[in-house]
Design a protein that fits this description.
Layout lengths: L1 H16 L4 H5 L5 H6 L5 H8 L3 E3 L6 H9 L5 H8 L12 E3 L2 H12 L11 H7 L6 H11 L4 E2 L8 E2 L1 H10 L9 H5 L3 E2 L10 E5 L5 E8 L2 E5 L6 E5 L5 E4 L3
Parallel strand pairs: 3-4
Antiparallel strand pairs: 1-2, 5-10, 6-7, 6-10, 7-8, 8-9
């Protein structure tokens, strides 16, 4: 009897000390979701989470500078403008909220600068005649050239012949009468002869300044109206003079 009890206890001890079956070991493996959670975060997601959703403009900021700082490239300025509801890239103000949506910037910019048939289509004869009227000179030639560009695209840093930004249109128009101007709105407004709003004449350059000293420039065409390369949505257009900070007059 004692021998039987001893044998039974030995068998029980052997069972307790035996290794678990393979099926029991695998039942303790982490769930699929737990495995996925341990995978390293993609760099793109980490970058987005490190970037704030928006920033406030301070004096001296530009959309290009904010784009370079937060998006890694100054070329995403167009998206920051679109995401923040800004129609004119040249005018931002201290205290203004800029939404840092850099991923949509790539889509907006590609759409804005995609090559199109417009870039290779020859200028229609009627437009060519308006761009360089034989009898026009001085300010009338400037106005005639600028008006001939109405309907063309706004592209940042462009100065024609198929697209313009605000200062690019001014530079191209005055080149028609031999006046060479810098392709930078602030530098344009630092030259020429100052003109008051009451004494504006066709061909005068009007500057709209923000509190940071950055200008959007337009060309006065008379009767309270202007021509300008407004923004990517509206391109080169005419309209009423809607604001005034300063004006300059240039002669050949």
């Amino acid at each position: 009897m004692i021998r039987k009890i001893t044998a039974a206890m030995a068998v029980l001890a052997a069972l307790v000390m035996a290794p678990l079956p393979a099926s029991a070991a695998t039942s303790q493996a982490p769930a699929a979701g737990q495995v996925a959670a341990s995978v390293a975060m993609p760099p793109e997601r980490a970058e987005r989470e490190a970037r704030p959703a928006a920033v406030m403009v301070v004096r001296g900021d530009t959309l290009s500078a904010l784009s370079a700082r937060w998006c890694g490239s100054a070329g995403h300025y167009a998206n920051l403008a679109a995401a923040s509801g800004i129609g004119n890239y040249d005018l931002i103000y201290p205290g203004q909220r800029i939404t840092l949506d850099c991923h949509a910037a790539v889509r907006v910019e590609r759409k804005a600068i995609r090559p199109t048939a417009v870039a290779t289509r020859p200028i229609a004869p009627a437009v060519r005649a308006a761009a360089a009227p034989a009898s026009a000179s001085g300010s009338s030639a400037v106005v005639a050239f600028a008006l001939a560009q109405v309907g063309k695209r706004y592209v940042w840093a462009a100065a024609g012949p198929f697209a313009y930004d605000c200062s690019g249109l001014v530079v191209a128009a005055f080149a028609r009468i031999g006046v060479r101007l810098p392709h930078q709105s602030g530098q344009i407004m630092a030259r020429g002869t100052p003109v008051s709003r009451a004494n504006l004449r066709p061909g005068d350059v009007i500057g709209l300044a923000d509190s940071g000293g950055f200008y959007h420039v337009l060309i006065y065409i008379g009767n309270g109206r202007v021509v300008e390369a407004a923004n990517p949505q509206q391109g080169v257009r005419t309209g009423p003079l809607y604001a005034f900070s300063a004006a300059r007059r240039f002669t050949a």
